[in-house]
Amino acid sequence: MAVYTEVSDEALRAFLADYPLGELVAFRGIAEGVENSNFALKTTQGEYILTLYEKRVDPGDLPYFLGLMQHLAGQGLACPQPVPAHDGQALRQLAGRPGAICTFLPGVWPRRVRPQHCAPLGDALAQLHAAGQDFAGRRPNALGPQGWAPLLQACRAEGDTVQPGLIAELDAELAAILAAWPAAGSLPQGQIHADLFPDNVFFLDDAAGQPRVSGVIDFYFACTDLLAYDVAVCLNAWCFESDHSFNVTKARALLAAYQARRPLSQAERAALPVLCRGAALRFLLTRLYDWTSTPAGALVTRKDPLEYLRKLRFFARAEGPGALGC
Amino acid sequence: MAVYTEVSDEALRAFLADYPLGELVAFRGIAEGVENSNFALKTTQGEYILTLYEKRVDPGDLPYFLGLMQHLAGQGLACPQPVPAHDGQALRQLAGRPGAICTFLPGVWPRRVRPQHCAPLGDALAQLHAAGQDFAGRRPNALGPQGWAPLLQACRAEGDTVQPGLIAELDAELAAILAAWPAAGSLPQGQIHADLFPDNVFFLDDAAGQPRVSGVIDFYFACTDLLAYDVAVCLNAWCFESDHSFNVTKARALLAAYQARRPLSQAERAALPVLCRGAALRFLLTRLYDWTSTPAGALVTRKDPLEYLRKLRFFARAEGPGALGC
Question: CA B185, CA B261: separation in Å to the nearest integer?
């Protein structure tokens, strides 16, 4: 639930005057997205989303994010397309913050993931990876393997208050994951979303009542990394049930649809368990960091880090890619 | 910023099947409104707001609120119009809560009130009062004068932690206000909004660039009470500057436009200072209650009760209605 920055109506009107979007019709804060302030913006030209970038986003990364969205939308991916102002620039300033207007996407994100969501998701992910292949921008994954040791270090003092023995377990996991991590250059790289959770994928039903992806949003963790790591993030985010069990039917649907568009190499398949383990560790560590550094009951809802400890243990024990539906 | 209840996509689709609204196109939580969960809902028929009523709203009051909105919209007031389902009922259940779909209103609420907003506001308020005259529903004002002593009592233990001596000052204020409060039946009564703050009034510019009211929302404090008390709430909410000074130009514009549609009687004008003082006390007390019963940094942003102590003192010293622009 996020509107951190208020925008006065005069400032908004002055901002909009720089765009070929007609007159302001409506403007409402959106209670979705955690990092930035988002507003539904309606003008006489259509519907848009205005995003103001808050302090957790590095302004130096914004040209990459907006350029990637522009590129992917140009390749036909249903993702927000940045709208350039009269001067050709999509990245501008409003209320003292960097801001951008993007096209609005229809659809609803699945509060409860069903197996029928997973094939269209896998297909959209492969489409995203293909569409990103000829994008020239590069952004290292700040929350990739090199970032995990410093994150774990930042959680060291308070981590065991969440669960006794947690830090020792994570030290051992991190060492094992880094030892087994694919060597640089050994797997295909490209532009990855890196945060493709259910609240970042909109669906609409087709005429037969089957969900189809109508939009992929929130590219503010996107980076240049192993394509199969994005698959591993999705297996973490979409394929566990609320009782913490792994739903291999969902995983198979996701992977089959992905591979129909971009088959995983033998090396990618072999690496999938450690990539999943690393992705589980990544979300565990950022949640643990937020948990231990955010007061109970604070404005931003904290997400339970132990959900990802269970996933981490599952992937650590998984016997090969077959156990993951691959 | 409010989405307290999540709605699964299956539950939403099943809910929508009971309405003549076509197919679901988009569904996003709205970061506005504090008491209830609000969602922007788009269907193949148009745009709507879905509200789920949370625990601070008494379900027994919902027929009054929805009936009043239906009535006012029918009289031509730009307010949300409840949409009946196929069975004719506008009040239904979703995700275990009472819920209703209302029409969407265009416009933007003024983050910074300008004098130009105040005449259209006064006109809309008088229109609301006139439109409510033949509405048969009745709801006592739970936050009217009878409610202030219990509220103050609930703040007694911790109130002075906000400012030393605060409770003694409020005891004296409450006694003075109740002693001077208009006797029952001495002033015109009717349906009042009772919470007409700037975030509850949408504006759009007309062709000459002047703001016009495009919507009045959030009737969940509406009740049957003195019409002039609603004017007093607006003088509190719209006519002070951020430096806490009273802007009599704004008050004059508000009052003149109101009186162009419904002139205040001599008795109402004479009562205006004490009504303003009572309204200031009412918002001070609810803010003080929330402040002392909500932990610092909690999910709901706390509003500063002392802003209303300054307003209360201003109105306590005001020498007659002329000092208020009346």
Answer: 22
